[in-house]
């Protein structure tokens, strides 16, 4: 039987992966991550839901990522650029080469699609 071509992105019954920023990237707080991967392809495509508790860390993107914020409030600041506050309902793309910081002010949950 071939795999289904329609995939619902849901966390129901899925055990999350737990994580945190690398110690050398942590700026403040104790952010804890939970990630529910709905799609993982050998081609470097990933999709799912990610959540973080409050804190701030440095980010460096080698990949392309589409994000849609489901809940919470974060401030994403680009190195040498402006800081942007994102909240539930906001969508954006972080392109390869993006450097800066991600600060979660209120526990944040997002849907994501990543292409390496």
TrEMBL record:
Gene3D superfamilies: Jelly Rolls. It holds the Pfam family Cupin_3. Residues 1-28 are annotated as: Disordered. Residues 40-112 form the (S)-ureidoglycine aminohydrolase cupin domain. InterPro entries: RmlC-like_jellyroll, RmlC_Cupin_sf, UGlyAH_Cupin_dom. It comes from the Bacteria. Coiled coil: none annotated. PANTHER family: (S)-UREIDOGLYCINE AMINOHYDROLASE CUPIN DOMAIN-CONTAINING PROTEIN (PTHR40943:SF2), CYTOPLASMIC PROTEIN-RELATED (PTHR40943). This is Cupin domain-containing protein. It comes from Mesorhizobium retamae.
